[in-house]
Amino acid sequence: MRLQLAATIFKVSVAASVGALAASFAGSLSMRAQELSIPRQTTYSVNTLETVALPATDENIKTLHLPVGFHIAKFVDGLDHPRVLLATPEDTVYVSSRETGTITLLKYENGAITRKTVAAYKDVHGMALRDRELYFITIHDIFAAPIKADGTLGEAKKIVSGLPDAGQHPDRTIAFGPDGWLYISVGSTCNECDERNPLQATMLRCHADGSGLETFATGLRNTIGFEFKPGTNDLYGMDDGVDWLGNEGQREEFNHIMQGKKYGWPYIFGDGTKNAYREPPKPYTLEDWDKSSERPVLTWTAHASSMQLLFYTGSMFPAEYKGDAFATMHGSWNRNPPSGYEVVRIHFENGKAVKIEPFLEGFLLKQGAQWARFARPFGLTQLKDGSVLLGDEQNGVLYRIYYAR
What we know:
Elements lengths: L9 E6 L5 H4 L18 E6 L3 E2 L4 H4 L8 E7 L8 E3 L5 E5 L4 E8 L2 E9 L6 E4 L2 E5 L4 E5 L10 E4 L12 E4 L5 E5 L15 E5 L7 E5 L6 E4 L6 E5 L12 E6 L10 E2 L3 E2 L11 H6 L6 E3 L5 E6 L13 E5 L12 E8 L2 E9 L3 E4 L2 E4 L3 E6 L5 E5 L4 E7 L2
Parallel strand pairs: 3-28
Antiparallel strand pairs: 1-2, 4-31, 5-6, 6-7, 7-8, 9-10, 10-11, 11-12, 13-14, 14-15, 15-16, 17-18, 18-19, 19-22, 20-21, 23-24, 24-25, 25-26, 27-28, 29-30, 30-31
């Protein structure tokens, strides 16, 4: 349930089941590992706050914060709700917009960036490259289209159909693994519920021709951003935590997603909080489900709302950034103070993720008693010179982040 409230805060306390929270303004629970709340005896409170949207003026952009040596500038603007970004080795950039149901081609030609709509499919969202084909996904279907010499697309072929309905999470995403399989994130239909379709809240995969669709991992509420760590077979993803559990619950998860593993949802949240309002399928108990569920590798501020994930492989940024990941945080709506509206860095050491830290901050502003933002970060992609493009869904801007002392 999304409330459109202009910088207004509501605080409500109720006694209710988690399953009824979305309908009854519930939610604040300390997320201590292994905490088990008592049904119908635990009181919850929720802060609902909608930040005020501002334009991306030059003055606002100058207030952004990056590590020393990094810079940010507008790359192109005037786009309509840009979502997923994907750059080819030739620096052709594809931009999806689920709002408009389009994929837009951006090319730098004769000193200017040209744009052209190359596909129109309702709810088109995630994209992936394989050889000279662009794969893209809507809520129910996956398509593959040949890429022509000028970057436009030939006739698209539907390779997968009948994916589950979207419900609360329609943002399907896809990526090819080093094994040649196409990986598919299918979010849950709800905040927390017992799904009737076993394909909900999963990572699926299929062959490049769409055959052999199978479940790879389960218990993933909504993993929009995921990618294989370059040079490895390790799949990582940012999973959005459940809402209506107060300011600090549930924290966003950075997961190492492995075949055949389950990641807790909807029975286990975060680092081990049990959902006392749901019973796992028999003969499992909550304790059984907890023991057999994977813990997050790292967590981030609750309700920040993670979106696209990008592993950095370029040589422009300092050497310590190579092999690290970046993730966009779209921004909260049920936290006070707000969280997200930023880009974070996920730092790896000796092949292991060790910390998440802010990388790009400043899109979120405090103006007197109210909060405002001039971006809702979403897309990330890397250009061949090693710079990174960042998409802002709110104002239709793509920013270029580069390093130059």
